[in-house]
Amino acid sequence: MGAGAVRLGVAGFGNVGREFVRLLLERRGLLEERYGLRVGVSFVADSRGALCAAGGGVLEWGLVERALEAPRGGVSRLPGGRPGLGVEGALEECGTDVLVDATPSRYEDVEPALGWWLRVLGSGGAVVAADKAPLAVACDRLAVYIYSKPRLYYKATVMAGTPLIDLLRWGYAGRRVERVVGALNGTTNYLLTRAVEGASFGEALREAQERGYAEPDPSADLEGFDLAAKASIVSCTLGGWIPLGRVERRARVDGEAFERARRATAAGRRLRYVAVVEPAAGRAYVDLLEAEPGSVLYDIRGVENAVVVESAEAGPVMLRGPGAGARATAAALLSDLVEAASVMGVL
Asked: Are residues 51 and 148 in the same domain?
Protein backbone atom coordinates (compact mmCIF):
# COMPACT_ATOMS: atom_id res chain seq x y z
CA MET A 1 0.00 0.00 0.00
CA GLY A 2 2.99 2.30 0.26
CA ALA A 3 4.14 4.93 2.76
CA GLY A 4 1.65 6.03 5.37
CA ALA A 5 -0.35 2.85 4.85
CA VAL A 6 -1.29 0.02 7.20
CA ARG A 7 -3.05 -3.31 6.64
CA LEU A 8 -5.53 -4.47 9.27
CA GLY A 9 -6.72 -7.94 10.11
CA VAL A 10 -9.98 -8.02 12.07
CA ALA A 11 -10.50 -11.01 14.37
CA GLY A 12 -14.06 -11.29 15.61
CA PHE A 13 -17.06 -9.96 13.74
CA GLY A 14 -19.78 -9.66 16.35
CA ASN A 15 -21.17 -6.39 17.68
CA VAL A 16 -17.80 -4.78 18.40
CA GLY A 17 -15.98 -6.06 15.31
CA ARG A 18 -18.79 -4.93 13.02
CA GLU A 19 -19.03 -1.53 14.68
CA PHE A 20 -15.27 -1.07 14.33
CA VAL A 21 -15.41 -1.83 10.60
CA ARG A 22 -18.43 0.46 10.22
CA LEU A 23 -16.55 3.26 11.99
CA LEU A 24 -13.45 2.60 9.89
CA LEU A 25 -15.51 3.00 6.72
CA GLU A 26 -16.92 6.27 8.04
CA ARG A 27 -13.58 7.69 9.17
CA ARG A 28 -11.00 6.40 6.69
CA GLY A 29 -11.09 9.70 4.79
CA LEU A 30 -10.55 11.60 8.03
CA LEU A 31 -7.65 9.33 8.98
CA GLU A 32 -5.89 10.12 5.71
CA GLU A 33 -6.67 13.84 5.79
CA ARG A 34 -5.75 14.47 9.42
CA TYR A 35 -2.99 11.92 10.05
CA GLY A 36 -1.79 10.92 6.59
CA LEU A 37 -2.82 7.37 7.42
CA ARG A 38 -4.21 5.12 4.70
CA VAL A 39 -5.78 1.90 5.90
CA GLY A 40 -6.77 -1.30 4.18
CA VAL A 41 -8.32 -4.51 5.49
CA SER A 42 -6.41 -7.71 4.74
CA PHE A 43 -8.92 -10.05 6.38
CA VAL A 44 -12.07 -10.26 8.45
CA ALA A 45 -12.49 -13.46 10.44
CA ASP A 46 -15.63 -14.64 12.19
CA SER A 47 -16.57 -17.89 13.92
CA ARG A 48 -17.01 -19.85 10.68
CA GLY A 49 -14.31 -18.60 8.36
CA ALA A 50 -12.65 -15.54 6.92
CA LEU A 51 -12.82 -13.05 4.10
CA CYS A 52 -9.22 -12.88 2.97
CA ALA A 53 -7.05 -10.86 0.58
CA ALA A 54 -4.19 -13.24 -0.13
CA GLY A 55 -0.70 -12.31 -1.25
CA GLY A 56 -0.22 -9.12 0.75
CA GLY A 57 -3.19 -7.31 -0.71
CA VAL A 58 -6.25 -5.66 0.80
CA LEU A 59 -9.96 -6.20 0.34
CA GLU A 60 -11.94 -3.85 -1.87
CA TRP A 61 -13.91 -1.40 0.27
CA GLY A 62 -17.11 -2.44 -1.46
CA LEU A 63 -16.51 -5.99 -0.31
CA VAL A 64 -15.84 -4.78 3.24
CA GLU A 65 -19.18 -2.97 3.13
CA ARG A 66 -20.86 -6.17 2.00
CA ALA A 67 -19.35 -7.96 5.00
CA LEU A 68 -21.38 -5.67 7.25
CA GLU A 69 -24.54 -6.89 5.53
CA ALA A 70 -23.64 -10.57 5.89
CA PRO A 71 -25.35 -12.61 8.63
CA ARG A 72 -23.41 -13.65 11.71
CA GLY A 73 -20.85 -16.24 10.71
CA GLY A 74 -21.38 -15.42 7.05
CA VAL A 75 -18.36 -13.43 5.84
CA SER A 76 -16.72 -16.51 4.34
CA ARG A 77 -19.63 -16.89 1.91
CA LEU A 78 -18.70 -13.64 0.16
CA PRO A 79 -16.32 -13.51 -2.85
CA GLY A 80 -12.83 -14.25 -1.55
CA GLY A 81 -14.31 -15.99 1.48
CA ARG A 82 -12.65 -19.03 2.99
CA PRO A 83 -15.03 -21.21 5.03
CA GLY A 84 -13.25 -22.81 7.96
CA LEU A 85 -10.22 -20.50 7.80
CA GLY A 86 -9.47 -19.32 11.33
CA VAL A 87 -7.51 -16.31 12.54
CA GLU A 88 -4.26 -18.28 12.66
CA GLY A 89 -4.72 -19.33 9.04
CA ALA A 90 -5.68 -15.80 8.02
CA LEU A 91 -2.52 -14.44 9.62
CA GLU A 92 -0.51 -17.00 7.66
CA GLU A 93 -2.22 -16.59 4.29
CA CYS A 94 -3.37 -12.96 4.29
CA GLY A 95 -0.95 -11.26 6.69
CA THR A 96 -1.47 -8.00 8.56
CA ASP A 97 0.42 -5.07 10.04
CA VAL A 98 -2.10 -4.56 12.84
CA LEU A 99 -4.33 -7.23 14.34
CA VAL A 100 -7.61 -5.86 15.72
CA ASP A 101 -8.87 -8.41 18.24
CA ALA A 102 -12.60 -8.04 18.85
CA THR A 103 -13.19 -11.65 19.89
CA PRO A 104 -14.97 -12.50 23.17
CA SER A 105 -12.82 -12.73 26.30
CA ARG A 106 -12.19 -16.39 27.18
CA TYR A 107 -10.48 -16.48 30.56
CA GLU A 108 -10.54 -20.25 30.96
CA ASP A 109 -8.28 -20.64 27.92
CA VAL A 110 -6.52 -17.56 26.52
CA GLU A 111 -5.33 -19.56 23.55
CA PRO A 112 -5.57 -19.16 20.66
CA ALA A 113 -5.86 -15.36 21.15
CA LEU A 114 -2.60 -15.08 23.09
CA GLY A 115 -0.83 -16.99 20.33
CA TRP A 116 -2.21 -14.61 17.69
CA TRP A 117 -1.00 -11.62 19.66
CA LEU A 118 2.49 -12.99 20.24
CA ARG A 119 2.84 -13.97 16.60
CA VAL A 120 1.95 -10.48 15.35
CA LEU A 121 3.93 -8.66 18.04
CA GLY A 122 6.95 -10.90 17.62
CA SER A 123 7.06 -10.18 13.89
CA GLY A 124 7.09 -6.40 14.39
CA GLY A 125 3.37 -5.78 14.01
CA ALA A 126 0.92 -4.27 16.47
CA VAL A 127 -2.16 -5.53 18.29
CA VAL A 128 -5.21 -3.40 19.07
CA ALA A 129 -7.47 -5.29 21.45
CA ALA A 130 -10.89 -5.32 23.05
CA ASP A 131 -10.31 -8.88 24.32
CA LYS A 132 -9.46 -8.68 28.04
CA ALA A 133 -8.41 -12.27 28.68
CA PRO A 134 -4.77 -12.35 27.46
CA LEU A 135 -3.86 -9.28 29.53
CA ALA A 136 -5.65 -10.46 32.67
CA VAL A 137 -4.22 -13.98 32.48
CA ALA A 138 -0.83 -13.56 30.76
CA CYS A 139 0.39 -9.99 31.28
CA ASP A 140 3.83 -11.34 32.15
CA ARG A 141 4.22 -12.55 28.56
CA LEU A 142 2.98 -9.27 27.09
CA ALA A 143 4.49 -6.59 29.34
CA VAL A 144 7.45 -5.92 27.04
CA TYR A 145 5.01 -4.81 24.34
CA ILE A 146 3.31 -2.33 26.66
CA TYR A 147 6.35 -0.20 27.53
CA SER A 148 9.71 -1.36 26.14
CA LYS A 149 8.39 -2.12 22.65
CA PRO A 150 4.99 -0.40 22.76
CA ARG A 151 3.00 -2.16 20.08
CA LEU A 152 0.12 -3.49 22.20
CA TYR A 153 -2.86 -1.14 22.62
CA TYR A 154 -5.89 -2.02 24.69
CA LYS A 155 -7.80 1.00 25.94
CA ALA A 156 -10.99 -0.73 24.76
CA THR A 157 -10.63 -3.32 27.54
CA VAL A 158 -11.34 -1.01 30.50
CA MET A 159 -13.75 1.93 30.54
CA ALA A 160 -13.73 1.75 26.76
CA GLY A 161 -15.39 5.06 25.94
CA THR A 162 -13.18 6.96 28.40
CA PRO A 163 -9.37 6.83 28.07
CA LEU A 164 -8.44 5.46 31.51
CA ILE A 165 -5.74 3.17 30.15
CA ASP A 166 -4.07 6.04 28.28
CA LEU A 167 -4.17 8.12 31.47
CA LEU A 168 -2.48 5.40 33.50
CA ARG A 169 -0.04 4.34 30.78
CA TRP A 170 1.14 7.74 29.59
CA GLY A 171 -0.35 10.45 31.81
CA TYR A 172 1.04 8.83 34.96
CA ALA A 173 4.40 7.81 33.49
CA GLY A 174 7.05 8.15 36.19
CA ARG A 175 4.53 8.74 38.97
CA ARG A 176 3.71 6.48 41.90
CA VAL A 177 0.07 5.49 41.76
CA GLU A 178 -1.09 4.48 45.22
CA ARG A 179 -4.68 3.45 44.61
CA VAL A 180 -7.23 3.09 41.82
CA VAL A 181 -10.91 2.71 42.69
CA GLY A 182 -13.36 2.30 39.83
CA ALA A 183 -17.01 1.51 39.19
CA LEU A 184 -16.07 -0.09 35.89
CA ASN A 185 -18.97 -2.40 35.08
CA GLY A 186 -21.91 -0.76 33.35
CA THR A 187 -24.28 -3.65 34.07
CA THR A 188 -23.94 -3.50 37.84
CA ASN A 189 -23.86 0.31 37.84
CA TYR A 190 -27.23 0.21 36.07
CA LEU A 191 -28.65 -2.37 38.46
CA LEU A 192 -27.66 -0.39 41.57
CA THR A 193 -29.17 2.75 40.05
CA ARG A 194 -32.44 0.90 39.54
CA ALA A 195 -32.28 -0.43 43.10
CA VAL A 196 -32.64 3.07 44.57
CA GLU A 197 -35.36 3.89 42.04
CA GLY A 198 -37.50 1.16 43.57
CA ALA A 199 -37.03 -1.77 41.19
CA SER A 200 -36.59 -5.27 42.54
CA PHE A 201 -33.42 -7.17 41.69
CA GLY A 202 -35.29 -9.46 39.29
CA GLU A 203 -37.04 -6.57 37.55
CA ALA A 204 -33.83 -4.58 37.15
CA LEU A 205 -31.93 -7.57 35.77
CA ARG A 206 -34.66 -8.30 33.21
CA GLU A 207 -34.60 -4.65 32.12
CA ALA A 208 -30.82 -4.74 31.77
CA GLN A 209 -31.00 -7.85 29.62
CA GLU A 210 -33.78 -6.40 27.45
CA ARG A 211 -31.73 -3.24 26.88
CA GLY A 212 -28.59 -5.18 26.03
CA TYR A 213 -26.74 -4.07 29.18
CA ALA A 214 -26.57 -7.59 30.61
CA GLU A 215 -25.82 -10.94 28.99
CA PRO A 216 -28.35 -13.80 29.06
CA ASP A 217 -25.97 -15.32 31.63
CA PRO A 218 -24.98 -12.27 33.72
CA SER A 219 -22.87 -14.13 36.27
CA ALA A 220 -19.54 -12.64 35.11
CA ASP A 221 -20.90 -9.19 35.93
CA LEU A 222 -22.87 -10.04 39.08
CA GLU A 223 -20.11 -12.17 40.62
CA GLY A 224 -17.41 -9.57 39.97
CA PHE A 225 -15.44 -11.57 37.43
CA ASP A 226 -15.51 -8.78 34.84
CA LEU A 227 -14.39 -6.24 37.45
CA ALA A 228 -11.62 -8.58 38.60
CA ALA A 229 -10.31 -8.87 35.03
CA LYS A 230 -10.31 -5.09 34.69
CA ALA A 231 -8.48 -4.74 38.02
CA SER A 232 -5.84 -7.15 36.75
CA ILE A 233 -5.44 -5.15 33.53
CA VAL A 234 -5.09 -1.90 35.49
CA SER A 235 -2.36 -3.48 37.63
CA CYS A 236 -0.64 -4.75 34.47
CA THR A 237 -0.68 -1.23 33.04
CA LEU A 238 0.87 0.16 36.22
CA GLY A 239 3.75 -2.32 36.05
CA GLY A 240 2.84 -4.42 39.09
CA TRP A 241 0.67 -7.13 37.60
CA ILE A 242 -1.77 -8.94 39.86
CA PRO A 243 -2.99 -12.03 37.97
CA LEU A 244 -6.72 -12.50 37.60
CA GLY A 245 -6.67 -15.49 39.93
CA ARG A 246 -5.26 -13.35 42.75
CA VAL A 247 -7.90 -10.61 42.54
CA GLU A 248 -10.18 -11.20 45.52
CA ARG A 249 -13.93 -11.01 44.91
CA ARG A 250 -15.41 -9.98 48.25
CA ALA A 251 -19.02 -9.29 47.27
CA ARG A 252 -21.60 -9.78 44.55
CA VAL A 253 -24.62 -7.87 43.28
CA ASP A 254 -27.86 -9.61 44.27
CA GLY A 255 -31.07 -8.95 46.18
CA GLU A 256 -29.14 -8.36 49.40
CA ALA A 257 -26.98 -5.76 47.66
CA PHE A 258 -30.18 -4.02 46.50
CA GLU A 259 -31.32 -3.72 50.12
CA ARG A 260 -27.93 -2.35 51.11
CA ALA A 261 -28.10 0.16 48.23
CA ARG A 262 -31.39 1.50 49.57
CA ARG A 263 -30.01 1.79 53.10
CA ALA A 264 -26.95 3.64 51.83
CA THR A 265 -29.11 6.10 49.87
CA ALA A 266 -31.26 6.75 52.95
CA ALA A 267 -28.06 7.60 54.83
CA GLY A 268 -26.91 10.06 52.13
CA ARG A 269 -24.48 7.74 50.36
CA ARG A 270 -24.64 5.58 47.22
CA LEU A 271 -23.59 1.97 46.91
CA ARG A 272 -21.14 1.12 44.12
CA TYR A 273 -19.64 -2.15 42.94
CA VAL A 274 -15.97 -1.36 42.47
CA ALA A 275 -12.59 -2.72 41.53
CA VAL A 276 -9.76 -1.57 43.80
CA VAL A 277 -6.07 -1.78 42.88
CA GLU A 278 -3.34 -0.94 45.41
CA PRO A 279 -0.05 -1.40 43.56
CA ALA A 280 2.38 -0.90 46.46
CA ALA A 281 0.59 -3.54 48.51
CA GLY A 282 0.35 -5.88 45.53
CA ARG A 283 -3.37 -6.13 46.21
CA ALA A 284 -6.52 -5.95 44.10
CA TYR A 285 -10.08 -6.79 44.99
CA VAL A 286 -13.73 -6.34 44.06
CA ASP A 287 -16.18 -5.09 46.68
CA LEU A 288 -19.26 -3.01 47.42
CA LEU A 289 -18.37 0.53 48.51
CA GLU A 290 -20.57 3.33 49.85
CA ALA A 291 -19.56 6.50 48.00
CA GLU A 292 -19.84 9.87 49.72
CA PRO A 293 -21.26 13.05 48.15
CA GLY A 294 -18.56 14.93 46.26
CA SER A 295 -17.01 11.78 44.84
CA VAL A 296 -17.35 11.06 41.15
CA LEU A 297 -18.39 7.56 42.22
CA TYR A 298 -21.40 9.08 43.98
CA ASP A 299 -22.57 11.02 40.94
CA ILE A 300 -22.75 8.35 38.23
CA ARG A 301 -26.05 6.93 37.08
CA GLY A 302 -27.14 4.14 34.78
CA VAL A 303 -24.34 2.47 32.83
CA GLU A 304 -21.83 5.28 33.36
CA ASN A 305 -18.37 4.37 34.66
CA ALA A 306 -16.19 6.37 37.03
CA VAL A 307 -12.76 6.00 38.57
CA VAL A 308 -10.59 7.75 41.15
CA VAL A 309 -6.81 7.53 40.69
CA GLU A 310 -4.72 8.47 43.72
CA SER A 311 -1.01 9.22 43.33
CA ALA A 312 1.70 10.51 45.63
CA GLU A 313 2.31 13.49 43.35
CA ALA A 314 -1.20 14.64 42.43
CA GLY A 315 -3.66 13.31 45.00
CA PRO A 316 -7.02 12.07 43.70
CA VAL A 317 -7.87 12.53 40.03
CA MET A 318 -11.41 11.64 38.96
CA LEU A 319 -12.58 10.40 35.57
CA ARG A 320 -16.15 9.74 34.47
CA GLY A 321 -17.70 8.62 31.20
CA PRO A 322 -19.09 5.78 29.11
CA GLY A 323 -17.46 2.43 29.72
CA ALA A 324 -19.31 0.08 27.44
CA GLY A 325 -21.28 -0.24 24.23
CA ALA A 326 -20.20 -1.30 20.77
CA ARG A 327 -19.77 2.24 19.44
CA ALA A 328 -17.64 3.43 22.36
CA THR A 329 -15.52 0.29 22.21
CA ALA A 330 -15.06 0.62 18.44
CA ALA A 331 -14.01 4.25 18.88
CA ALA A 332 -11.36 3.16 21.39
CA LEU A 333 -10.06 0.59 18.90
CA LEU A 334 -9.87 3.23 16.17
CA SER A 335 -7.98 5.61 18.46
CA ASP A 336 -5.54 2.86 19.34
CA LEU A 337 -5.05 2.10 15.65
CA VAL A 338 -3.85 5.66 15.06
CA GLU A 339 -1.51 5.42 18.06
CA ALA A 340 -0.14 2.10 16.86
CA ALA A 341 0.51 3.44 13.37
CA SER A 342 2.38 6.40 14.84
CA VAL A 343 4.62 4.26 17.05
CA MET A 344 5.28 1.83 14.18
CA GLY A 345 6.57 4.74 12.10
CA VAL A 346 3.79 4.54 9.54
CA LEU A 347 2.77 8.18 10.08
From this structure: yes
